Amino acid sequence: MTYLFGHFGIVAQLAGEHLALVATALVIALAIAFPLGILAARSERVSTLTLGALGALYAIPSLALLVLLVPILGLGFWTAVVALVTYAQMLLVRNIAIGLRSVPAAQIEAAKGMGMTSAQRLIRVEIPYALPIVVGGLRIATVSLIAIATVAAFINAGGLGTLIFAGIHQDDPQRTIAGSMGAAALAIVADAFFRTLERRLRA
Amino acid sequence: MAGVGVRYPGSATPAVHDVSLTIPTGELAVFLGPSGCGKSTLLRTINRLIEPTDGTIHVDGTEVRALDAVQLRRRIGYVIQAVGLFPHLTIAQNIAVVPELLNWPKAKIDARVDELLALVRLEPARYRARLPRELSGGEQQRVGVARALAAEPSIILMDEPFGAVDAIVRATLQDEVCRIHRTLGTTIVFVTHDVDEALKIADRIVVMNTGTIVQADTPLAMLTKPASPFVAQLLDAGDTIRRLGLIGVAQAMRAEIVAQSTVTVDAKATLREALSALLGGIERIDVLRDGARIGSIGFDDVRRATSAA
Lengths: 203, 309
Prior knowledge:
The complex is a heterodimer of chains A (203) and B (309).
Chain A: H1 2-6, H2 8-42, H3 44-58, H4 62-73, H5 77-101, H6 105-113, H7 118-149, H8 161-169, H9 173-202
Chain B: E1 2-6, E2 16-19, E3 28-32, H1 39-46, E4 54-56, E5 58-59, E6 62-63, H2 69-74, E7 76-80, H3 91-95, H4 97-101, H5 106-119, H6 124-127, H7 137-149, E8 155-159, H8 167-184, E9 187-192, H9 195-201, E10 204-209, E11 212-217, H10 219-224, H11 229-235, H12 240-244, H13 249-252, E12 264-266, H14 271-278, E13 284-289, E14 292-298, H15 299-308
Parallel strand pairs in B: 3-9, 3-10, 7-8, 8-9, 12-13
Antiparallel strand pairs in B: 1-2, 1-4, 5-6, 10-11, 13-14
Helix pairs in contact in B: 5-7
């Protein structure tokens, strides 16, 4: 604890880096996951294939994936982002597809019967209905990415992991504790934020 | 509709076969028949939710296939049993869907929403901002009807709209549909398997069985002159009591007035109500029009009218 209180500025700066890493990854991940989720919701075949492939990627240990990416992409921030985007896909695509499939048939029938095009149906009816479930996926993805992003320090991507690794290398448990607590605090805050958002959307 | 047929892929018998039918503008036509007779399928060919495999359909003189399906549907109101209101939109936004798709100006949409809420007897100020789940099933279907009317369609299609509400609410909603139909003069095509519902609201009943039209006629003609044993059985046409509700007191009464009758019946009522009043104990009761006695009706008149019909 002494390190945490003594070097609050450093911990806050690293937490900022950590958040930047996770937020960048989430934005990119959502941009990829939405089209994939929509396709997976429309077709059982696409769903099986996509979720199978993403499940396999999800199963790769994070440290291993980062190390495997380094020879291709080099060290640093963007390599870590690629890894985080990969992990988020599974959770996001699955929830987007489940959300879109849960739209009641009556709403689809009514939307068609009223003369909505399939794009209008998606934007005005299906996505709003699916949104709480999508946010649920986003919540789990965010918390996972905050945890996984600590490992990204191993390839010089910054963030709170820097403190954890420094603590390990220099035999200074105070730093490791400070980094871990910072990451845990971020995860708790993110979880609470998305939970509230989810509840608002359901209400 | 001319020679309309619908055959689903992989099905040996067509769902609808060689249906030709003209529904005059302003009519309330009811497709009646047992489940699986093709009545819903036929209804859904009108707004092209189902594309017929044979025949042609014209709406207001235009072949439906000549129009873009999406544009066509915006001109045709559609009400389904499950209502299908959008839960994330307020009642006002739900009603405004089609006018918005048609890019009506906002002020016109707002005025239209209030007008429609009043028409389906939901007080605009109270209901506008509510969400669908805050409404009862009956209220939701009122909104469903308002939504279908929103863009002033020339036709409204209703697919068993009141099948999911309880009997009392159903009766009220039937009255509302009849009232709205009389007020607006919109053509309504209504699908049901409920014989009493059909007899109550229809200008004309189209009885269907195994994908074809068996008989198309007014409710009274259908009861008195069923074209086949199937129709007679479906409508329980031998049941004279059923006819009572379809014949007006004005049609059956005599001009003579019984000065002393304290019980009276309105000329606009049906023989059902007249008989009910007569069963209260007297032979003849006076008939009122706008509060003035204009004639009387007795058991013999009721009997004559129901057997002659």
